[in-house]
Amino acid sequence: MDLFCEQENEISIQLPHIRLSAKLWGSQDKPLILALHGWLDNANSFLPLSRYLANYQIMAIDWPGHGLSEHRPGHYPLHWIDYLYDLDALLDALPLHQQPIAILGHSLGGIIASAYTAAFPKKVGQLILIEALSPLYEKESKAKQRLNNSFAAHRRYLQSKLTTPSVYRDISVAVNARHKLTALDVAWCEIITQRNMKKIDSGVCWRSDPRLKLDSPLRLAYSQVDALMQAHEVETLLVFGQQGFSQLKSAIPTARRWFKQLEVRELEGDHHLHMGNAKEVSLAIDHFLTTNGRKRD
Prior knowledge:
Helix content: 25-40%
Structural class: alpha/beta
CATH architecture: 3-Layer(aba) Sandwich
Strand content: 15-25%
Shape: globular
Distance between the termini: 31 Å
């Protein structure tokens, strides 16, 4: 693995198939938590948590196409399962002294971490899911329409590449647009958006891969997800917000059937409660890691 520091707390990790960017908070002599962000976010989304998790080193990556990481090559449609390969390659690339004691995943990052640890439980000891549970699924009857929608959106994307990309006079336009769309606090929208945009002579434009916004060509059926998640061995903390995705709360009985070792915490906050309520989330994480660490000792 080629891992080098570009500037303070910024690192670059060359995997066999792609280069990832990441941020590091905390010293190397502390236990490492590998943090995986959500869809259209980036490593900066873990900045608030890093200020409270002082007993750990946090490595927050940018997924391909997000933040400062490379885009996937070519112009083919993207699929969520690609991230499983990225995570596997990353864990194999990290040196022995920098193997994470836990994977922390928010939203998409949690979906990937949950699916990965279900399939490869020996790869990491503990799992922390924030507003995430398992891979998304839908009825098999929707497969044909999903494939049609995905290909239609991809054709539009290929046509759009012939036009000039949108340019904004400054980042505030994009920040306010995200704030209106997600209701996430403006301050948090700004630190995420900064890393997903780049400066050009006439202003700023998106750095993110536009394919991220296209429909996936395939989604698993419930029977497939159920088979994958059965007898999940990894010690898991599930944190969800009182104003977050309502489906998570209703899925708790299913989660308890899937996970052999599951702790559930409902905290004040929305889908990004790890930013807006970072202190309480960090306390839950620290308690979970410390308690389970003592049990193993």
